Amino acid sequence: MKIHEYQARQLLAEAGVPVPPAEVASSVDEALAAYGRIGGRVVVKAQVFAGGRGKAGFVRLCDNADQVREAAAFMLTHRMVSRQTGPAGVAVHKLLLAAAMDIAAEYYVGMTIDRGRRCPVMMASREGGVEIEEVAARNPEAIVKEWLHPHLGLQPFQIRRLTQALGLTAKEHVQAAARTLAGLASLFLRYDATLAEINPLVRTTDGRLLALDAKVTFDDNGLFRHAAITAMTDTSEENPDEIRARAAGLSYIALDGNIGCLVNGAGLAMATMDLIKLHGGEPANFLDVGGSVTAEGAIEAFRIILADPKVKGVLVNIFGGIAKCDLIAEALIAAAREVGFHVPVVVRLEGTNVERARQLLNDAQVSGLLTAEDLTDAAQKVCAAV
Ligand code: GDP
Ligand code: MN
Questions:
Q1: Which helix (H) or strand (E) holds 292?
Q2: Which of 40, 73, 194, 351 has the smallest count of CB within 10 Å of its CB?
Q3: Can you tell me the distance from the alpha carbon of 72 to that of 155, in angstroms, rounded to the nearest whole number?
Q4: Segment 126-174, tens digit of pLDDT
Q5: 133 assigned to active site
Q6: Per DSSP, which regions of the chain are E strands?
Q7: Protein residue with least CA distance to atom 16, ligand 1
Q8: Which residues hold their Cβ within 5 A of ligand 2, which is an ion?
Q9: What is the pLDDT of residues 193-238, one digit of tens each?
Q10: Contact of 180 with 211, CB cutoff 8 Å
Q11: Residue 136 alpha carbon to ligand 2 centre in Å
């Protein structure tokens, strides 16, 4: 799960990391009101999940209300396209206004999981700012790493090494860096984060060390124990069908092809997509209805697939183990009655209660329904039909 910069700044501040004062605005008027309270020189920043905002023109320094109005109006009415968004870009719904700092140096500090070493790793570089990806590619030695013991956490000697790597020597900078690194590590571990970055961490011309940008991503599997993080969810940049599927307990990922897939089991769903591609088709989605799927969940799955205008055919592939073939057959019949099959639906059922399922489908005489002998036959039939 991703959160916005303004939420990440709040978590950092709670963890004891110095962050400049800031406010959130959802309209030009709110931005102007916030500017009235902050005043002076501010930075206006689009709150979207993608990075690369600075280079895309969605981080702007403003010295007066007119500039704030212009920047806010631009960002709220233009999609932001950066190297992290793809060509379609993303719409901006919220802005952050922060008191601008006079920057003497920009640093990078970040934390993630090193899967090879199976532990968290903290990284620091004195070449922070908007080019950190290029630093990582061109000059990886400029990023210093310290691996954390899973139970001992970030140790004082590691903080000293990382602070030295940043080239900080003045006593107040060393202390502020120690607070920042320790705060970042505690936030990362406490909330089951998968990524926590401050880029840039800046030294200001008046000698302070502050976090000016923050990005935090959480492990979805840990969210059940962090209600405060879950409450930060913003689904405005997500695919609406994926949100709808999640609410019904379905694992659904929208794809670019035209063959809708309804399958039980993630592995079988992957194999089904492979077979569709093997026979010349392109899947429109990944969908695992899961073993404990209810009739209502299965009908919702059909609704989501059939409402996708790209879908020109559907492949239903059920290997009934815990999931029952007859429950899927009933859902198929109910979905056919409710929305109608305007495209061919090829069905391959095997396993628990398959005889009853076949009987139900036979009796219902659903138009547009094709039955398949086996999975290859099903993939061939749906590709031919499409
Ligand atoms: P990103 O491009 O999405 O990572 O957005 P950032 O928040 O990191 O902003 C990009 C760049 O804008 C930073 O690296 C800074 O150089 C600049 N910037 C951000 N905030 C300030 C500020 O308060 N003062 C000044 N002078 N520059 C800033
Ligand atoms: Mn940044």
A1: none
A2: 40
A3: 43
A4: 999 877 888 888 888 899 999 999 889 999 999 999 999 999 999 999 9
A5: no
A6: 22-25, 42-46, 59-62, 95-99, 103-114, 119-125, 144-147, 193-204, 209-211, 214-218, 251-254, 259-263, 285-288, 313-320, 345-351, 369-371
A7: 129
A8: 199, 213
A9: 999 999 999 999 999 999 999 999 999 999 999 999 999 999 888 8
A10: yes
A11: 15
